[in-house]
């Protein structure tokens, strides 16, 4: 099998989850803490995949909960690298809820996370510049 050449580091990850009752509050909607955990995981994966380094969360900025996400909906969590510093990566993360019966999709939550790449000793290390669009 011929390997697929990779010339540009990947800048996006997508994850899918189903909202079960143990993910929700008394109103049957996704707990904010669970949403943040999924978002942080996507930010981690996007930054680690892009930098090919160990990364840690340095900050989460302005997480906007626009619409509730309900039991039984599929949630697609999309993390995209949108800005790169010396060792930091800003990751935009969106939660898109999908009704599995109708196919209707809605952007429910959006936030930004700053991730830092670390070397083997746990010190910040430079990451590649973001490719021009």
From TrEMBL:
Gene3D superfamilies: Hotdog Thioesterase
Domain (HotDog ACOT-type): residue spans on this chain: 9-121
UniProt entry tagged with the keyword Hydrolase: yes
Coiled-coil boundaries: none
Keywords: Hydrolase
Top-level taxonomic group: Bacteria
EC number: 3.1.2.20
PROSITE patterns registered for this protein in UniProt: HOTDOG_ACOT
Any GO MF annotation of the entry: fatty acyl-CoA hydrolase activity
Class of the enzyme per the UniProt entry, highest EC level: hydrolase
Similarity comment text for this entry: Belongs to the acyl coenzyme A hydrolase family.
Protein name per UniProt: Acyl-CoA thioesterase
């Amino acid at each position: 099998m011929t390997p697929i050449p990779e010339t540009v580091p990947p800048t996006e990850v997508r994850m899918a989850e189903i909202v079960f009752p143990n993910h929700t509050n008394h109103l049957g909607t996704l707990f904010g803490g669970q949403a943040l955990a999924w978002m942080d995981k996507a930010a981690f994966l996007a930054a680690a995949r892009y930098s090919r380094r160990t990364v840690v969360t340095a900050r989460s900025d302005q997480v906007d909960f626009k619409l509730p996400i309900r039991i039984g909906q599929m949630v697609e969590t999309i993390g995209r690298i949108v800005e790169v510093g010396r060792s930091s990566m800003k990751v935009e993360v969106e939660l898109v809820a999908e009704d599995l019966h109708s196919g209707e999709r809605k952007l429910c939550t959006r936030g930004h996370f700053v991730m830092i790449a670390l070397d083997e000793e746990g010190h910040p290390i430079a990451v590649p510049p973001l490719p021009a669009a």
